[in-house]
Amino acid sequence: MSLFIGASQQYSYAQVDPEKIKIAEIQHAAMSSTFNKVIQVCRDKCIPGEYGENELNTGEQCCVDRCVSKYVKANTIIGTHIQNKGFTPYDSMPEYQGVRAKITQQQ
């Protein structure tokens, strides 16, 4: 019994699509990479190498907030621009190309 599905019997015969699992794994890896990059860039920019206190001061907090906000805004603008140009991740990422080929064969 799954914690997320509960005791419902309607999902007991559900099939798992390996291609969808692979796409989810690729998306998870990309999201983790982006998150880790934000943490690294904003920490390097806003927090000094030597910690004087166990909590961030007001200036450091504001710097981190602005840094994360700019990073997310830039990521959103770039993503929107790429989508409007008709670019898909399948065009350049080998991981997606393999999954796309399998999905196309099934359709």
From TrEMBL:
Record has Signal as a keyword: no
Domain named Tim10-like: residues: 22-84
Entry-linked InterPro entries: Tim10-like (IPR004217), Tim10-like_dom_sf (IPR035427)
Stored Pfam families: zf-Tim10_DDP
Keywords tagged on the record: Chaperone, Disulfide bond, Membrane, Metal-binding, Mitochondrion, Mitochondrion inner membrane, Protein transport, Translocation, Transport, Zinc
Coiled coil: none
Membrane topology: Peripheral membrane protein
Subcellular location: Mitochondrion inner membrane
Free-text comment about domains: The twin CX3C motif contains 4 conserved Cys residues that form 2 disulfide bonds in the mitochondrial intermembrane space.
PANTHER family: MITOCHONDRIAL IMPORT INNER MEMBRANE TRANSLOCASE SUBUNIT TIM10 (PTHR11038), MITOCHONDRIAL IMPORT INNER MEMBRANE TRANSLOCASE SUBUNIT TIM12 (PTHR11038:SF18)
Function comment: Mitochondrial intermembrane chaperone that participates in the import and insertion of some multi-pass transmembrane proteins into the mitochondrial inner membrane. Also required for the transfer of beta-barrel precursors from the TOM complex to the sorting and assembly machinery (SAM complex) of the outer membrane. Acts as a chaperone-like protein that protects the hydrophobic precursors from aggregation and guide them through the mitochondrial intermembrane space.
Recorded family membership: Belongs to the small Tim family.
Quaternary data: Heterohexamer.
Name of the molecule in the record: Mitochondrial import inner membrane translocase subunit
Species of origin: [Candida] anglica
